[in-house]
Design a protein that fits this description.
The structure is a single chain. Helices cover 63% and strands 3% of the residues. With 510 residues, it is mostly helical. The protein is globular, with a radius of gyration of 23 Å. The N and C termini lie far apart (63 Å).
Length: 510
């Protein structure tokens, strides 16, 4: 590049860096809000987040960005730029067009209302009363729909909801998701029927024994250390804290996860830690040469969920993983010394229709997501209202999972996502499951012995494959393109269904 275009490009990346650094600060403030912030601070915190969102919006919509983009994009040398430079420019241009379309007041109002709604949701959930939370949820939905209608025009989406999906899964359409989920649902129904038709069903009674929280924290350290998520050394870039709803936040050198401990359900924290560590490893294994550049972020939330679901389920619920790991936790936690490998494997893979998404087994989990996707799709299409959410939620749980919802806390209020304004996020979870199936198939072709190595406590081969094919690619590709490059196949639920059928036919003997 000549000095003119090179200078413009470097200045553009400098402005991008400021926005990324500010985002990391916002992430830490959100983390504090969910972990250590005193209850009375929520109003002050909402003001802080609103101010930061306005500053972030100003950075992302500065006229200088448009000017620099024009200099570069109209230059005769533009076509000679490399793939990374062009992708950076594409991502900056996309973000600029979207942010400039949104009024600063709307951005600020959204940030403030999200903080307030989350706080109200927490109180309403404790009291099992949707009506306490409904008004704030309605305000947040109205603001989110207003933003969606604006972004729909900028992104050239067919409907407002698709504009929100694009925030999490770029270029993914509601039509593609509906078609893919219908295929997934058609494959899951006979599998669930076969499992339920088995006369011998595993018991999960052994998972209900009491494990002191200090011992569960020891198991956490073993998990993070085994997976390679460093929370203990002097060079650690991670940490584990406790919160109501587990999540991961961070960027490169500071990536934090949270979990929730239950004295009488030690497995819950184990699988939340496996899940969140998968997210954390993705963030920490991004290409360090791209840090602070648009291309140096993760590809999509669906790809992100593929990593968490891969570590949680495909590794974490496998017999191979526990062949090596079970003796370690029995040594760290003497009151678990009665656990035996095969009964434990059957217990953690018990398939049972349930009400709570985060506690669902890997076979029925996607049904929870399909329900939420259909509700979001219909909500933004005006087919249902916020008032009707509890009733429609309860009916879908009866229809899809055959369970009766007893109260709003185990129903429509069980997740924090809608209170946090994360409309369009939920499809990412089931897409992550589907991607993880494709990844497992490709990994097995490339490394046929990876399961044997896992049984020996060796995750280096798996971690390296994921880093090479997924993590290090950052945001160089859109998700459907990345998964095709990594696995050799486009978005396809069939490999995931094949994985489930092979695993559970073996476990249940059908």
């Amino acid at each position: 590049m000549t000095n003119n275009i090179n200078s413009a490009y470097r200045e553009l990346l400098s402005k991008t860096k400021d926005a990324v650094v500010l985002s990391t600060a916002e992430g830490i403030i959100h983390w504090d809000m969910e972990t250590y912030m005193p209850p009375n601070a929520v109003e002050q915190r909402s003001q802080q987040l609103a101010l930061l969102s306005r500053i972030h919006h100003k950075l992302g919509t500065a006229p200088e960005i448009r000017k620099l983009l024009n200099i570069i994009q109209t230059s005769a040398e533009y076509q000679s730029l490399g793939q990374v430079e062009k992708r950076n420019l594409y991502l900056i241009d996309k973000s600029y067009r979207e942010q400039t379309a949104l009024p600063e007041k709307l951005v600020s109002d959204l940030a403030m209302q999200e903080a307030l709604t989350v706080n109200v949701w927490k109180k309403a959930k404790v009291q099992k009363n949707f009506s306490l939370y409904k008004a704030d949820l309605q305000k947040l939905f109205d603001l989110s729909k207003q933003a969606a209608e604006i972004l729909m025009k900028v992104k050239e989406s067919k409907m407002p909801y698709e504009a929100l999906i694009d925030n999490f899964e770029p270029k993914m359409t509601s039509e593609t998701i509906t078609k893919t989920f219908n295929h997934l649902l058609a494959g899951l129904k006979p599998l669930i029927t076969n499992i339920e038709g088995c006369q011998t069903k595993p018991t999960n009674q052994i998972l209900n024994q009491t494990v002191p929280l200090e011992n569960q924290r020891k198991i956490t350290q073993l998990i993070t250390g085994t997976l390679g998520y460093d929370t203990a050394s002097l060079k650690a870039g991670g940490r584990v804290d406790e919160t109501e709803h587990p999540f991961t936040t961070g960027y490169y050198d500071d990536v934090r996860i949270t979990t929730h401990y239950y004295p009488n359900n030690f497995a819950s924290s184990i699988f939340s830690e496996l899940h969140e560590s998968g997210h954390a490893l993705y963030e920490q294994n991004l290409n360090p040469q791209w840090q602070y550049q648009p291309v140096g972020s993760t590809c999509s939330y669906g790809i992100h969920e593929s990593q968490s679901r891969f570590y949680e389920n495909i590794i974490g619920r496998s017999k191979e993983f526990w062949t090596d790991f079970l003796p370690k936790i029995k040594q760290a936690t003497p009151n678990l010394s009665n656990l035996q490998l095969d009964p434990f494997i059957h217990a953690i893979n018990r398939v049972e229709r349930s009400k709570i998404r985060i506690e669902a087994d890997e076979v029925t989990y996607s049904l929870h997501i399909i329900i939420r996707f259909e509700l979001e799709r219909d909500l933004f299409a005006g087919k249902i209202t916020v008032d009707e959410l509890p009733e429609v939620w309860n009916q879908k749980y009866a229809d899809y999972l055959g369970v009766k919802i007893e109260n709003d806390s185990e129903g429509v209020m069980q997740d924090t996502h809608w209170a946090s304004g994360l409309y369009g996020y939920f499809p990412s979870y089931a897409l992550g499951n589907i991607y993880s199936g494709q990844i497992t198939s490709a990994l097995t072709k490339d490394q046929p012995d990876w399961r044997r190595e896992l049984a020996e406590g060796k995750l280096e081969g798996v971690n390296t494959w994921l880093k090479t094919n997924i993590h290090s690619k950052g945001d160089l590709y859109d998700p459907e393109e990345l998964i095709k490059l990594a696995t050799g196949t486009p978005l396809d639920s069939e490999p995931y269904l094949q994985y489930l059928n092979k695993k559970y036919s073996s476990l249940y003997g059908f």
